[in-house]
Amino acid sequence: MDLISRKDRKLEKRGTKIAIVGKSGVGKTTLLFSLPAKETIFIDLEAGDLAVDEWDGIALQPQTWNDCQTLAALIGGADPAALENSSYSVKHFEEKKKAHPELYEQLQKMKYVFVDSLTHTGRLSFQKASSTDNGRRDARKAYGDHGQQMIKFLLQLQRARRMHIIFLSILNQRIDDNGLKSFNIQIEGSKTGEELPGIVDELITMTIMDEFTPNPYRAFVCKTLNEYGYPAKDRAGKLDVLEKPDLGALIKKLGKPRSMNLMKSLNFELPPPQEISDQLLLSPEKEQTT
């Protein structure tokens, strides 16, 4: 384990891990057109390539959870911390590399991995976790195994430091009896959706703004503190609350120096005491009790 200076860190080629969530039909898959076709691998789990049938790049269509694990091993490389006979171990990686030499060589040329989608990846993972030899199923154990599999899969792809990894997923919106909105990422079980924001560098909601007006438009919501309540996170601190829904341009922006010091971009100032009191009086919790 070596010490790494700031100079060495700046010289290292690093990709960004991005999760883009949004309701079905908002245009997530079409973002593929904004990436360079010769440097992008499209992992098409949804069989939803009709929207991008004119895209010039290459695609893979994993059919099983084992296919997904094979791809993750070839993309992320061997995990030295993994147990010998477990997924993504040195042994597992070498076996997959030997079995798929052309695929491994092709993947090494790529800079972008576009995964469409985590929603369907989760279905394959749960299908594998709930399958048993004797036909009996323990739902609690299946969900536990599935959650662990999915987190290992995401962390394995995160190991591909030089590559930009883009995950797509459906975002569900719910409105309770009091009219309060909540969102959840559509992945089988709760563990993956809850932990995803902590794994990726950028969590972005793609949505339609002013949807029911004469001039609706699509946008990326990129900051945790946003007035719309959408799930979002900008670890790099380089994005605005709203960004144009151009994935290629967004990745280029993330590669540029920050326009201001990161500490200055965060708001640590509390409002005056009177404003805090007013906000508490107007909070949804207070309204529900009156």
Structure description:
- The longest helix is centred in the middle third of the chain and has 20 residues, at 139-158.
- Strands 1, 2, 3, 4, 5, 6, 7, 8, 9 and 10 form a 10-stranded mixed β-sheet that branches.
- This protein has helices at 6-11, 65-76, 90-99, 101-107, 118-129, 139-158, 191-199, 247-254, 262-265, 273-281, 284-289, and strands spanning 17-22, 40-44, 58-60, 112-116, 164-175, 181-185, 202-209, 217-221, 233-234, 242-243.
- Residues 286-290 have low confidence and may be disordered.
- The chain has 290 residues and is α/β, with parallel strands linked by helices.
- The chain starts with 5 loop residues before the first helix and ends with a helix.
- Helix 5 (118-129) crosses helix 6 (139-158) and helix 6 (139-158) packs parallel to helix 7 (191-199).
- The protein has a single domain, classed as 3-Layer(aba) Sandwich (Rossmann fold), CATH 3.40.50.
- The protein contains 11 helices and 10 strands.
Q: What percentage of amino acids are in beta strands? A: 15-25%
Q: Give start-end ranges of low-pLDDT stretches.
A: 286-290
Q: Overall pLDDT, averaged? A: 89
Gyration radius (Cα, Å) is 21 Å
CATH fold description: Rossmann fold
Total DSSP E strands: 10
User: How many helices does DSSP assign?
Assistant: 11
CATH architecture: 3-Layer(aba) Sandwich
